[in-house]
Amino acid sequence: MAPHGKELSEDLEKRIVALHKYGIGYKIAKTLKLSCSMMAKTIQQFNRTGSTQNRPHHGRPKKLSAHAQLHIQRLSLGNRHMSAASIVAEVEGVGGSACKCSDHTPHTASNWSVCLF
């Protein structure tokens, strides 16, 4: 479960689960000065997974470094008529590799869009 706001400490999450197992209901929230929804989500996560720790995120790994992404944003805002091939040349000059294809074939301007993002 991905956190949407402030994350609770592990100690506090363990206390919530322990009090819940002991049989204390929604008074846990009042005792620990938490919102009822935060306490309920912690208990639901524990009941579903058996743990209160966040699971690793799924999804595609990032291809560009944070520095290279920021550089691309600045380039595109500074010159809106810049082509994808010239942006790639600039990003590779900064030190980030824009294309991490496994086949290592040279790219033409027509197929850069496939590898950029």
From TrEMBL:
Name of this protein: Paired domain-containing protein
Organism: Staurois parvus
